[in-house]
């Protein structure tokens, strides 16, 4: 499958006159020219995270959406093939992408940047060819930094994902089933074939008694 990418952008102006650019999928050279906000440390220190993003940018299927304050990246969302160790990679669908990460600097929370990252991601008409999934685990959530309870955070997260058209899907995946707050969400594009949808449904449930 040829992964066509059409960069879309959105100018976001907040009530307090902050202006942000949300754009993507961006090419690698754009990412190289920008600096990552020092508070983007959910996965690793920001300088190391930029190196990781540059490696992701080399992947043919990857799609990186960023929120910028000038040349400062203050948030990003990454779409790429599921980790080979996850069950979602077993079906080897070339049009199944995972929202591998979405992060916004703590200095810029309250501007609905995460929602706009997903909105811009779905503005590319090519996304109608893909099944997009995200696996949400409560132990990855910034409960301490936000002060939210597990269920409050889950509610916020679900609303953010719905902005990008992702909906809750049942599964018998052991990690997701290990806690009721964990969940699988997905968006199935309008041009995804019935065969691909069947394969996705098959991998969601590995035990017949769950069907």
From TrEMBL:
Gene3D superfamilies: 3.40.630.30. It holds the Pfam family Acetyltransf_1. This is GNAT family N-acetyltransferase. CDD domains: NAT_SF. One of its GO terms (biological process) is acetoin catabolic process. InterPro entries: AcuA, Acyl_CoA_acyltransferase, GNAT_dom. One of its GO terms (molecular function) is acetoin dehydrogenase (NAD+) activity. Residues 26-211 form the N-acetyltransferase domain. SUPFAM superfamilies: Acyl-CoA N-acyltransferases (Nat) (SSF55729).
